[in-house]
Amino acid sequence: MLDCDLAALRARLLDWYDSHRRDLPWRAPANSHQDPYRVWLSEVMLQQTRVDTVRPYFERWVRRFPTLEALADASLDEVLKEWEGLGYYSRARNLHRAVREVRDRYGGRIPDHPETFRSLPGVGRYTAGAVMSIAYGREEPVVDGNVRRVYARWMDASQPSEPELWSLASRLVVGDRPGCINQAVMELGATRCTPRNPRCEECPVASFCAARTAGTQHERPERRRRAPLPQESRVAAVIEQEGRFLLARRPTRGRLGGMWEFPGGLMNAGEGAVQALPRVLGNSLGIVVEPQRALQPIAHVFTHVRVMYHPVVSALIRGDPVAAAYDDVRWLAADELDSVALPRAQQRIAAMIGR
């Protein structure tokens, strides 16, 4: 555990943060009220996503849904369309469910009690700590990837345990301006205490860092080797009829839930896309198709799996599509494909057919 004067550490962090904090669209000016909705939204968007990626999404989002009530009143399709391309779509679905619960149960006011806030869909310990400390000034800790790296270096620990990390975070956050303390540590990890080339000479608390003293800052924390991702192959049908294309909406729960796609499914081992398509669409939509030609395969990497999509231009021979394995089906003209939320791989398929 870090053995130093936490009061002095906090003071230096706050001085540095006041002078060096980045100007981000979700941050209110210094010494002004933080909007809990904007804080919550930013923390959800920033999960496993870089600040530079999130910034334009956040700015577009608050123009479209400027208040919690506006987001709660929107349909899931509208929400997912605004989230399109940001990935990890369960974040958007959970946020939408949660703000509706806030509207219906709490009169539109985001709860300021940590346990009540954590009871909302998709809200975990980190998100609760960030929102409670930044928006409401509560002494609630946070531990994310940046914080974990900073603390590991401060402690000179190769793989600090979760209890150790949260214990240190809980001790550090006690005192004035807990939200700024949490943001200061996150900011330090994002801009100075970076993964591969820490800028120790610019760190305001380098004298408190055990790894810097020992010369092990480049080795902390120890990087875990990731297991190879499993791979799967999926066929996708590009079916055109009278100038419109068939799209299907995936079930709300599960990967890419609520998003639209060119209908398809898993290919069996050793099965080609042309052979798989009639089987897959017969089961999922109850239609008979004739595969005509295969398009260029598209690779996409999710968090836990690597997927190769195999688009196949096909003709509808018999049957009306029934959403047996989907939530909905829809025929859309090429210039209407932008009206629904399409994952990145599906956008690339749409581009290949002259979107």
- Assembly type of the chains comes to single chain
Under CATH, the topology of the largest domain is which?
A: Endonuclease III, domain 1
Residue-averaged pLDDT:
95
Radius of gyration: 24 Å
Low-confidence stretches: none
CATH architecture of the largest domain: Orthogonal Bundle
Query: Briefly, what CATH class of the largest domain?
Result: Mainly Alpha
The CATH homologous superfamily of the largest domain corresponds to: Hypothetical protein, domain 2
Q: State the order of secondary-structure elements, H for helix, E for strand.
A: HHHHHHHHHHHHEEEEHEEEEH
Give the termini separation: 57 Å
Structure description:
The chain is α+β, with helices and mostly antiparallel strands and 355 residues long. It folds into 2 domains: 6-219, Orthogonal Bundle (Endonuclease III, domain 1), CATH 1.10.340; 231-352, Nucleoside Triphosphate Pyrophosphohydrolase. Helices cover 42% and strands 15% of the residues. The protein has 14 helices and 8 strands. The protein has helices at 6-20, 36-46, 51-64, 68-73, 76-83, 90-106, 114-118, 125-136, 145-155, 162-172, 178-191, 210-214, 273-284, 344-352, and strands at 231-241, 244-249, 260-261, 264-266, 288-294, 298-301, 306-318, 328-333. It is elongated.
